[in-house]
Each structure stands twice: as C-alpha cells, then as structure tokens.
Amino acid sequence: MDNKLREIRLDIGMPIAELARRAKTSRQTIHAIENKSRKSISGSLMFRIADALKRDEREIFFDHHVTHVEQSA
Fold first, then answer.
1. What is d(CA 37, CA 56) in angstroms, rounded to the nearest whole number?
2. What DSSP string describes 10-29?
3. C-alpha dihedral over 30, 46, 15, 20, to 10 degrees?
4. pLDDT tens-digit profile of 18-39?
5. Contact call for residues 4 and 53 (beta carbons, < 8 A)
6. pTM of the prediction?
C-alpha cells in the first residue's frame, strides 16, 4: 500500500515505537506499512495512525492525484 507514513513520522520526529504505542498496534505493523510490504490496512488502523500523528488519513494513505467523481443515477 502506497503511503507517506515514514516521511510524516520522521518529519515530526516520532520514533516508530511511540507511533505504534499511540496507534495501539505493533512496531512490526508500522514497519511493514512504512516499507509497503503490507498490502492492505484496516480503516480502523488507518484512523488510529492518523490520530496518533495528528494528521488527516488522506494525507498519509491516499495519493493526492486521486479524485472523487460523483456518478449520476
């Protein structure tokens, strides 16, 4: 899964263990997400990580080039 987790975490100077603690997950999980070796992530974990970093989850986990298009019925 493409993301900016490591970049954002390092920018604010938060150790991986601290992020894991705040997001209520393991260091191994954070490491796997940062290294893009984890192919998917639950919405719940996404929100906990974003909350721990005080960022919007879209800033961390979604490509800014993706747009939302409304479809008519």
1. 22
2. HHTT--HHHHHHHHTS-HHH
3. -70
4. 999 999 999 999 999 999 998 8
5. no
6. 0.82
